[in-house]
Amino acid sequence: MKRSVYSLVLMDDVVKAVDEEAYRLGTSRSNLINQIVAEHLSCITPEMRMREIFNSVTEFASSSFKIQQQQSVSLMNLKTVLEYKYRPAVNYKVELEREPNNFLGRMRIYIRTRNQLLISMFNNFFIYRIDFEKKCLSELGYNDYEFELYSGSFTRKLINGAFDSKKTGTAISMYLAHINKALQLYFSSPESFPSHMIENEYRQFLEQFII
């Protein structure tokens, strides 16, 4: 979204109030004024778009995930636990680009444990998952799948499917639910993991959404 520089004459008390609110929200004076004016005039700002996306994620994901308090309009943290001994926590972090191009943002999934067996299982699952996702997306003409895999942590960029905010939020929440289901099944029994069923479900997901 293009920005230009303009001069405004404002009352000192207004500027003081804006500065205090901008500090509380962790943003700048000009960005807050831009948001206030845009909302008053029914213009869509990046912040409004991100809020709409995360509201949609909350609507669909709240039944399966514990949603953490948002510290930033561009960042959402969710958590679930694996039905496995010690019930390790798995954290999901979704960070959106303010002005997305090819990528909507990024998603990080990481496991909270020091148990090396659990970390190894987590990594093995995502080694398999990365290969499969790359293959499926490549078949549809998306060859810019970008990821990072470290010890107990997987990050991938989210492809911008150019959907409206609600549909984007639905796509993210459905992807979260699919990954969570696959992880739960894998940890419950790696030897009998129903990969064929999970892969079919993912292909069905890609018929509706690219993310």
Give an overview of the whole structure:
The chain is α+β, with helices and mostly antiparallel strands. It has two domains: 7-43; 46-208. 49% of the residues lie in helices and 18% in strands. It has six helices and six strands. The protein has helices spanning 12-25, 29-40, 46-61, 116-139, 165-188, 195-208, and strands spanning 66-67, 75-81, 89-96, 103-112, 147-150, 153-159. It has a six-stranded antiparallel sheet with strand order 1-2-3-4-6-5, with helices on one face. Helix 5 packs antiparallel against helix 6 (195-208).
- Mean pLDDT across the residues is 89
Which structural class do the helices and strands define? alpha+beta
- N- and C-termini, Cα separation: 22 Å
Strand proportion, as a percent range, falls in 15-25%
Overall tally of structural domains: 2
SSE string, helices as H and strands as E: HHHEEEEHEEHH
Total helical segments:
6
Flag low-confidence runs. Answer: none
Spatial shape: elongated
Topology:
Blueprint lengths: L11 H14 L3 H12 L5 H16 L4 E2 L7 E7 L7 E8 L6 E10 L3 H24 L7 E4 L2 E7 L5 H24 L6 H14 L3
Antiparallel strand pairs: 1-2, 2-3, 3-4, 4-6, 5-6
Helix pairs in contact: 1-2, 3-5, 4-6, 5-6
